[in-house]
Amino acid sequence: MIAYADDMRSLESVAPVAVTQYKPTSVINVVEPYVEVTNDGKIELQNVPTSVYEEYQLDQLQEHFNRLNAEVDAGNIRINNDLSIATIGISPRTVHGTWTYHWWGYDQYFDNQRAQRFSANCYSVAAGATLVTGIGAWFPPVSFVGVAQAAYWTLVGSRVDYNNLGNGVYIGVTWAAIFNVEPL
C-alpha cells in the first residue's frame, strides 16, 4: 500500500497490520515467472498461486496490466516477448523527463535540476493531501487517504533529496507503489 525507504535504501511495504521487508528486484523476481505476453501482444498473469497473488498485491499489478494493454490497443506501446516495452514513435534511448514503461511499473532518470523540482512537487502534493486530511476530519474515511498520501509523497521527496548528490537520481516504482531511489 505505502512504500517506505530507510537511510540504508532498503524498501518496505507497509500494510495495515504487518510490515514486510521488500527489495523491488526480489519482488519482481518472484512475480516475473507468472507474467506472459499473449499472441495479440498483451500482457497477463498466468497460473499464479493464490499465496503469491495475495502477498504481492497482484490485483494492483493486474490494474497496471490493464492500463498497459489499453496502451497496446491505442497503438502507443508494444510489449515484447522478453517483457520489455517499446514506446512507439519515440527513440528508445534513455530520456530525462520521460517515465519508461516496464511490466512491473515505471522508472525515470532525473538530472539534478529536475530531481530538485520533482522533490518540491512531491512536497506540494503532500501538503495538498494534508489539507484533504484536515477537511476529512469531518468524514473519517477520507482522512486516512489524505494521511497516507501525505506520508507517501513526503517520503518520496525526502528520498529524492537524500539520494540527489548533485548528479540526479533514478526512480523506479512498482505496481504496489514500492519505490526505489538511487543516486546517479
Question: Can you walk through the features of this model?
Answer:
The structure is a single chain. The protein is α+β, with helices and mostly antiparallel strands and 184 residues long. The chain has one domain. The chain is 43% helix and 24% strand. It contains five helices and eleven strands, in the order βββαββααββββααββ. It has helices at 24-31, 50-55, 58-73, 112-136, 140-163, and strands at residues 2-5, 11-14, 19-22, 35-37, 43-45, 77-79, 85-87, 100-102, 105-110, 169-174, 179-183. The protein has a four-stranded antiparallel beta sheet with strand order 8-9-10-11. β10 (169-174) and β11 (179-183) form a beta hairpin. α4 packs antiparallel against α5 (140-163). The two termini are 27 Å apart. Residues 1-22, 91-95 and 134-144 have low confidence and may be disordered.
Q: What is this structure's SSE topology?
A:
Blueprint: E1 2-5, E2 11-14, E3 19-22, H1 24-31, E4 35-37, E5 43-45, H2 50-55, H3 58-73, E6 77-79, E7 85-87, E8 100-102, E9 105-110, H4 112-136, H5 140-163, E10 169-174, E11 179-183
Helix pairs in contact: 4-5
User: SSE order in H/E notation?
Assistant: EEEHEEHHEEEEHHEE
Average of pLDDT: 77
Low-confidence stretches: 1-22, 91-95, 134-144
Distance between the termini: 27 Å
Number of helices: 5
Helix content: 40-55%
What's the count of strands? 11
What is the general shape?
globular
* Percent of residues in beta strands: 15-25%
Major sheet details: 4 strands, antiparallel
Cα-based radius of gyration, to the nearest Å: 17 Å
Provide the number of structural domains: 1
**Main β-sheet, spatial strand arrangement:** 8-9-10-11
Secondary-structure class? alpha+beta
